[in-house]
Amino acid sequence: MHIHDIEAFLTVVQTRNISRAAEQLYVSQTAITHRLQNLEAELGVTLLERGRGIKEISLTPSGQDFMPIAHRWAALWKELDHFKEEGEKLSLSFGSVQYLNDFIFPPLFQKLLNHQPKIHLSLHTEHTAELYPLLERREIDVAIAWRNIKYPDILCTPWKKTPLVVLKSSTISDKGISTVDNTDLNPQDEIYVPWTPEFKNWHDDHWPSDIYSSPTLLTGAPLTLQVLKNSGRWSIVPLGMAQYAFSLGGFTYSYLSDSPAPLTAYIIQHKKPRPTTQRSLSIFFKYLQEFSLNIDRQALAYKV
């Protein structure tokens, strides 16, 4: 059953005249008649009362029964055309640690959300150790994490590095370019975030956990800022987070005289991604490359 035949039938019923139907569809009367004959032959019934001496065409009982079917068929065909115009649906499931998702990647997410054709974007915020199993089970397509953890089916590539600085609540207008001596920091005032095992080892060298105890925030970046605000306490955080806090006001940050190694962000992905995600991944990496080139000019930038 062809949509042109259905269209001719519905238009003739509406206009009650083959000539007017032909004008409305921009075809000849012969074409309309031919389409009606095709439809009736395929269905094996007469749909319309027409012939010499009949001024207005009317439906036969079979035609009346066929009308709702014809309407549904035409509507379904329109939906099918719309479906084909939209093309293949794209989807991408991305995971990262909270600091990156909250403070670094929003401009990248905006690019992905504005892409045409649209990408159904699913975002996951997890600790690094949880991202690897999600990738291995293909529950996410790509992720950026703090550590290179050996998994047989996961590719891990260094992406960017960010220095760690001291962030403090303050009413002093400071541009965050000073340096503070580690020994001048009171460990009793620290809000401790264990960014990576390597960072924890460095931290224990300066402020051994068996001697000093400080509140630990395993939940990471946003809660750290809330707790630090107006508290007089300090915390060691990534530079981008410190710059963001400084832009809000009420915070200042400094570099350390003996600083920990920069945090390295790693791109992690499955060695054999799902075929349906190949195009989405290609788009993601294109935007990520552009984002990387511009990141040093952004207020929340890393320094490589």
From TrEMBL:
<dbReference type="InterPro" id="IPR036388">
    <property type="entry name" value="WH-like_DNA-bd_sf"/>
</dbReference>
<comment type="similarity">
    <text>Belongs to the LysR transcriptional regulatory family.</text>
</comment>
<dbReference type="InterPro" id="IPR005119">
    <property type="entry name" value="LysR_subst-bd"/>
</dbReference>
<feature type="domain" description="HTH lysR-type">
    <location>
        <begin position="1"/>
        <end position="60"/>
    </location>
</feature>
<protein>
    <submittedName>
        <fullName>LysR family transcriptional regulator</fullName>
    </submittedName>
</protein>
<dbReference type="InterPro" id="IPR036390">
    <property type="entry name" value="WH_DNA-bd_sf"/>
</dbReference>
<dbReference type="InterPro" id="IPR000847">
    <property type="entry name" value="LysR_HTH_N"/>
</dbReference>
<dbReference type="Pfam" id="PF03466">
    <property type="entry name" value="LysR_substrate"/>
</dbReference>
<keyword id="KW-0238">DNA-binding</keyword>
<dbReference type="InterPro" id="IPR050950">
    <property type="entry name" value="HTH-type_LysR_regulators"/>
</dbReference>
<dbReference type="Pfam" id="PF00126">
    <property type="entry name" value="HTH_1"/>
</dbReference>
<keyword id="KW-0804">Transcription</keyword>
<keyword id="KW-0805">Transcription regulation</keyword>
